[in-house]
Amino acid sequence: MEQSQNIFERVIEKDEACWNVIIAGHGVNGNGLKALELFELMQSSGCRPDSYTFMGVLMACNHTGMVTEGLKYLDQMQSLHGIKPKLEHYSCVVDMLGRAGQLSEALKLVNELPYEPDSGIWSSLLSSCRNYRDLDIGEKASKKLLELGPEKAENYVLLSNLYAGLGKWDDMRQVRRKMKEEKEKIKILKSHSEKLAISFGLLHTAEGTTLRVCKNLRICVDCHNAIKLVSKVVEREIIVRDNKRFHHFKSGLCSCGDYW
Questions:
Q1: How many C-beta neighbours within 10 Å does residue 181 have?
Q2: What is the pLDDT of residues 177-224, one digit of tens each?
Q3: What is the pLDDT of residues 105-145, one digit of tens each?
Q4: Distance CA 9, CA 220 (A)
């Protein structure tokens, strides 16, 4: 982001696209305060924000835990700027509330959406329920999620992770049986595939090499803690891109500050 910021500052005539990219970049990488500072500068420069701008602003609030600010900007989209929020804006706010542990508020927002909630919203809510061990809302989210995508293995993985985190092994085994009934080939272990990828990387790359891993689900708490420890023990930087953000692990710490 430092290089991106330097290039941005050299641009003399900054248009909406230029502002949107730098705001979103800081937002998704956890530099929320910088993103909001740039948003204010954008407006003072006379450049009008659009729906893409607000997507970056909401991501900034989401990844930095600024719930009050995020709700304020969602409201201001239409009240001050005449921009109707799209499903992806609401999805980001639902994720923001979930990450902050405000699961009841997140579910309330989902139920009041002017759009039909998609699988991404329910998946985000279920992941947050797993992190905060909320079985009631988690089961409601999983029911909706499985209705939308009964053939998708990752939906069963999220639910089984919730049950495993709560020590409900019988329920977890039932979910695994359901996966087999739906002819899914992905096992529960694959939900933690980043550990396998990192192990492979450590064995097949030179010492000091930065490891880069991508996965299609949000990284779980157990894997996040494990990778922090690994980065400290092997003295390597490990970069993990999950379905929400980049995690830069180094010396036992993560760039997300344990907030994702």
A1: 8
A2: 777 766 545 455 455 678 889 998 998 899 889 999 988 778 888 788
A3: 999 999 999 999 999 999 999 989 988 989 999 999 999 98
A4: 37
